[in-house]
Write a structure and sequence with these properties.
alpha/beta, 11-stranded mixed β-sheet, 3-stranded antiparallel β-sheet, 22 helices, 36% helix, binds zinc ion
């Protein structure tokens, strides 16, 4: 007697159901993965990964590029490519119009009439961990960040069980990507290199951080950097050398061990920003041999760091997700670009501001020398002295309009003129040239071209600070940078192109050449972790790089009562 086909099919379905084990929750709530690391290389243009590929050894960049989902075409979608906004974007999945951070510092006359405030300084708090006798400075916090981060969402959805930390040599790069609910953020005291924090996070350094600072590690970095032992500027002197990369990674290891990060029932997150690529890069530019050596050092040190994670996170690297990206790229040193024929001029920003002050005085207060533009300017936002305009009875619209009207002639006055009237036989030297200007009010009202370029500008609107006019010079041009060197701050591709590589269980290894953006990091992680996207997120989930859920495999937890010896040791060191 044969079994009817219908019964056979239903038996087969039941057999399948019975054989398959219940699918574990592949999200943050049961620790899949144990640890997420957002690895940011400060000032690291994406083309470095291709350019120096043949230098890479072992399992540093190669681990990520060969075993991860490698996106070759990741570009920031805004025009103010600086450190504080870049790190905010990586954490929040939003641009400046969403997270509020427009630059590294800006004038906030309500808080300080003497100097610009930094993106993270906060006089309501104090710094923690400074050496005795150090100059006092305001504390720090993410007070200006208007949006939540992926770390905040993880903390919210696990009701504070997941832990989130930020580490960098720079305060802004430690604080902003981690977010408001972070358990801690650590950066260095620029003078001594000691890792410090702020009373915003904790009243005193945890024991493990104190032990790191009191230990021999900073002295070792000074020796490796061949720096004088009594240097008063660890940040500049050691920070610009390869010695600072392993110094920073060693602190990250101390943090992971000391806090027991990755040993939680739910997923923990670390944002780790390597600063030395930027500190050196400004001095020497992207094409210098010294910067190539720095990139190769990062590669070698990441190899060591990843190997350490494999040993020290429960279940190894299989329980870790890593995303590699950068906060911005960099322009070539203007002289180098000019040599090849580009109009790569440097701009005398002080002279530009003087010219503007003169022109605005002529219009509103002839014969006077009122400082209508604030001192200590940096592009792309020229900041206006609201108080002086208001004293003269001029409102924001008139003030910004006047400055905007005068910018072209102020730029023209910087032009290098040749007296020679006849045709020249050699290429003329490049001159500063203006590309576009937008007032704060135009940007706030969205009075911008309905084009991809207009969108970059719309994403650069900030409500932090006062009145301003956004000034964009022609490509490859920038304000002269102290001691030569180069800078980043523009909407041009070289400043917006950054690496994006995801490594971890859910990511399908491969090279992906579609255009993506750093805002997609938070969106993708939020989806995979099963939490909400950050409050202002505009990113897309990068579904093209995801394995089908059935193919995502995590290491099995160690049987209870038999922890791995190294894990038992690490757990006993856990302080908080
Ligand atoms: Zn920089």
């Amino acid at each position: 007697m044969s079994i009817p086909k219908r019964v056979l099919v239903s038996l087969m379905i039941w057999a399948l159901v019975l054989c398959s084990t219940p699918r574990a929750n592949a999200g943050a709530y049961d620790g899949h993965p144990k640890l997420v690391i957002i690895l940011v290389l400060d000032q690291f243009r994406a083309d470095y990964l291709e350019r120096y590929k043949s230098d890479f050894k072992a399992r540093g960049f190669n681990l990520l590029m060969e075993h991860g989902a490698y996106f070759t075409d990741c570009y920031f979608g805004y025009a103010n490519t600086e450190t504080a906004p870049g790190h905010s974007t990586i954490g929040t999945g939003a641009y400046t119009d969403g997270h509020g951070i427009g630059s590294n510092e800006w004038w906030d006359l309500a808080r300080n009439k003497e100097r610009p405030v930094t993106s993270v300084e906060d006089e309501r708090y104090a710094l923690v961990g400074l050496p005795a006798g150090a100059k006092t400075a305001p504390g720090s916090s993410p007070r200006n960040l208007l949006a939540s981060t992926i770390g905040d969402e993880l903390r919210l959805d696990t009701v504070g069980v997941s832990r989130v930390y930020g580490v960098s040599l720079k305060d802004r790069a430690a604080i902003l990507p981690a977010g408001a609910t972070a358990n801690g953020a650590f950066w260095i005291d620029p003078a001594t290199g000691r890792f410090i924090t702020s009373t915003y996070y904790m009243p005193e350094l945890p024991d493990w951080a104190q032990a790191f600072d009191d230990g021999p590690r900073a002295a070792q970095a000074l020796t490796e950097a061949q720096a004088p032992t009594d240097t008063k500027n660890f940040y500049r002197v050691v920070g610009a050398t390869p010695a600072a990369v392993s110094y920073e990674l060693d602190f990250a290891k101390a943090l992971i061990t000391g806090t027991g990060l990755g040993k939680n029932p739910t997923t923990d997150l670390l944002t780790l920003s390597i600063s030395s690529t930027d500190i050196l890069g400004h001095k020497v530019g992207p094409d210098a041999e010294a910067q190539r050596e720095m990139v190769d050092t990062v590669d070698a040190d990441l190899d060591g760091f990843f190997a350490w994670l494999d040993k020290n996170v429960e279940g190894g690297l299989g329980n870790v997700w890593i995303v590699l990206t950068a906060d911005h790229g960099i322009a070539p040193v203007p002289a180098n670009a000019a040599k090849l024929g580009l109009d790569a001029a440097t701009i005398d920003l002080n002279k530009l501001v003087d010219n503007l002050n003169f022109a605005v005085n002529q219009k509103f207060s002839p014969g006077e020398k009122i400082q209508y533009l604030l001192p200590r300017q940096s592009l792309p936002y020229l900041e206006l002295n609201e108080a002086e305009f208001e004293r003269a009875g001029i409102n924001e619209q008139e003030a910004e309009q006047a400055v905007q009207d005068f910018v072209p002639q102020a730029f023209a006055s910087l032009t290098v003129h040749s007296d020679d009237k006849g045709p020249v036989t050699a290429k003329l030297p490049p001159s500063p040239e203006l590309y576009r200007t937008y007032t704060r009010q135009q940007m706030a009202a969205g009075q911008l071209p309905n084009t991809p370029f207009g969108e970059l500008i719309a994403h650069s609107y900030t409500s932090n600070g006062g009145w301003y006019v956004m000034v964009i010079p022609r490509a490859f041009q920038m304000a002269a940078f102290a001691g030569g060197g180069t800078n980043h701050f523009t909407p041009y591709s070289y400043d917006r192109h950054v690496p994006l590589v995801f490594y971890g269980a859910p990511f399908a290894p491969g090279t992906y050449r579609g255009l993506v953006q750093p805002v997609d990091i938070a969106a993708t992680f939020a989806s995979l972790l099963g939490v909400n996207q950050p409050s202002a997120s505009i990113g897309h989930v990068l579904t093209q790089a995801l394995k089908p859920p059935s193919a995502v495999v995590y290491p099995k937890p160690a049987p209870a009562g038999h922890p791995h010896p190294s894990r038992r040791r690490a757990a006993s060191e856990t302080k908080q």
